[in-house]
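Hey, I was hoping to borrow your eyes for a little while. No rush at all, and the record is pasted right below.
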Amino acid sequence: MTFASIGPNISLSPQYIPILRKCTNMWADYYLLIVLAGVGSLQLATQHSQIRNLQITGNVYLNRFIAISLIIGSSLWFFGSENRNLSDTNGGLDGGDQAVLFTAGAITALIANLSISHTKRFVHTVRYKMKGLEAMHDEPYLRAVLTNLRILRSRWKA
């Protein structure tokens, strides 16, 4: 007796449901690993380049602690929670899935980092307008992008 029909000649019996659930959990776990480690890596990079407005906290040591904790903690959780040494035929992730999930996780980490840092630095205190990447040292990301777009637009019209 079949449980569900996927295609014309492919049926899914109840004995395969745990494999599909485990595969979905593996995808979600890998995605979460990339997002958390990505946010931690971005925080270390912003601290090293001294881009203060992309850091989660204003305290250098607390920011470094959070970044290292995110990287190490997510790795320990991912590899320590269950056996992840699985081939793609036994419920693991194949190379294509890893590439897609890594890209999606990295983009999500960037968006999360920009969102957190932008809500933290909502008040604009800089009186001068800097151009390029230097603007991100003292302005929130969105404000720096809009300022640079205005500068480019004024140059284009001239």
Q: What stands out?
A: The longest helix spans residues 17-48. The chain is about 60% helix and 5% strand. The helical segments are 17-48, 60-81, 95-120, 141-157. Residues 124-158 form one domain.
